[in-house]
Specification:
Blueprint lengths: L1 H8 L1 E4 L3 H19 L7 E2 L4 E2 L22 H8 L12 E5 L12 H10 L7 E4 L4 E4 L5 E6 L10 E4 L2 H13 L13 H14 L2 E4 L6 E5 L4 E3 L13 E6 L6 H6 L2
Antiparallel strand pairs: 1-10, 2-3, 3-4, 4-12, 5-6, 7-10, 7-12, 8-9, 8-11
Helix pairs in contact: 5-6
């Protein structure tokens, strides 16, 4: 079931896993510490409603924090056995926390960018990085997948993760055409901005927007090429004092050709 969903829809969810629940319990103190650390204050954005927390979890290559356990369970087995991805390091994870009112405007964000965050969930594909003053999009990171691990239970509407069903197929087709005939090592220099924007518009018009929810002990796995984002916090949504905390693993695996062509 997960295999069909992942390859056809671009994402899948795994049911409650005791191994993952144990990992969460053992990892939670380190996750909380990363949010509270003064050195990470730069990650608090959107008027204090979002702690972006990129690569702030102090985990080792096995996914374990000090005093914790290595990351394991059904989803990890799927990554190893079905995606055939093994022998990679679990790079420091993102600790993403949203709070009531997300998103509020940022001084560093244009009005158009804020509208996109508010109306289109800041939808993006990982690895296509804005470069330079004009923020032109270039392929600079080669993530193998996105693994989302909710750390707390929240009500519906608490800035949930969203993904566009089947969008990974449109992204692959568009970028295969863009890079056709060019050596993979040169793809990072190709300006993908217009193609990326037009393909996103096509996805918004043709692909179903899916709100993904999961409880602690559950996990969702997202295809590296899938368009995804975070929905605004609904006025009726509630969460505990830690907010809506999700830990994301996005290890970089392989190179540009793997990013585009791997299953």
């Amino acid at each position: 079931m997960q295999e069909h969903a992942f390859f056809d829809d671009g994402w899948c969810r795994f049911r409650y896993d005791p191994k993952l629940a144990n990992w969460i319990e053992r990892t939670l103190p380190a996750a909380r510490a990363s949010v509270a650390a003064p050195a990470n204050a730069q990650w608090l954005r959107c008027g204090g409603t979002w702690f972006a927390g990129v690569n702030v979890l102090a985990n080792d290559a096995s996914g374990a924090v000090d005093g914790g356990v290595e990351l394991s369970g059904q989803a990890v087995d799927f990554i190893h056995d079905i995606l055939d991805l093994r022998g990679f390091d679990w790079e420091p994870a993102q600790v993403s926390v949203c709070y009531p009112g997300y998103p509020k405007p940022m001084a560093s964000e244009s009005e158009a960018a804020y509208r996109y965050r508010l109306k289109r969930d800041a939808a993006h594909v990982d690895g296509l990085i804005p470069v330079g003053a004009q923020r032109r999009r270039h392929l600079r990171e080669y993530h193998g997948f996105l693994l989302g691990i909710p750390m707390f239970e929240t009500s519906d509407g608490a800035a949930p993760f969203v993904v566009w069903r089947g969008s990974h197929k449109l992204i692959r087709d568009a970028f295969a055409a863009l890079y056709d005939g060019q050596a993979p090592e040169s793809w990072q220099d190709v300006d993908a901005t217009e193609l990326y924007q037009s393909t996103r518009r096509e996805i918004f018009e043709t692909c179903e927007r899916v709100v993904v929810t999961a409880k602690p002990g559950e996990v969702y796995l997202v295809h590296r090429l899938a368009l995804h984002g975070v929905a605004p916090w609904a006025p009726s949504a509630t969460a505990g004092p830690d907010g809506r905390m999700i830990i994301y693993f996005r290890p970089e695996i392989g190179g540009p050709a793997d990013w585009l062509n791997a299953p």
